[in-house]
Amino acid sequence: MSTLTTTFTVDLSPAEILPGAADRFDLSKTWTGALEGTSRGVMLTAGDPAGGSASYIATETFEGTLDGRDGSLTFQQLGTMADDEPELRYIIAPGSGTGALAGITGTLTIGAIDEEGRHQVTVELT
User: Fold this and answer.
1) Residue 99 CA: distances (Å) to CA of 23, 38, 58, 64
2) Quick one: how far is CA 2 from the chain centroid?
3) At residue 21, what are phi and psi to the nearest 5 degrees?
């Protein structure tokens, strides 16, 4: 297992709502650090965020380099919040890697978010 650090900024754009979702957003991220490149995806939300209980799912495809290796990966997220307590699961989808990233699996952990919206991320590769 190896641990890497990276950051991303994200742009969310409202999109057409799908059945079963409260809201839908298209997302794009710019990654710097151990991950260098961009990702694009979709996020679906449900619940009452203002009331402290909600959830979202997201899937995105990253294209670029991971620790100097070229290819693409798919990231999947499941975020929940109950009684204002958030929980997030963020993984590299098994079997999603292409090029030099084929066979890579692992998890991502989001840490601090700075004033410019840059998210600090730890990547654990397995």
Assistant:
1) 34, 16, 23, 10
2) 19
3) -115, 145
> Quick check: 71 and 97 in contact, CB under 8 A?
yes
pTM score above 0.90: yes
pLDDT in tens, the chain (126 residues): 899 999 999 999 999 998 888 999 999 999 999 999 999 999 999 999 889 999 999 999 999 999 999 999 999 999 999 998 999 999 999 999 999 999 999 999 999 999 999 999 999 999
Residue 56 belongs to domain spanning: 2-125
The count of domains in the chain is 1
Q: For residue 64, give the CATH number of its domain.
A: 2.40.350.10
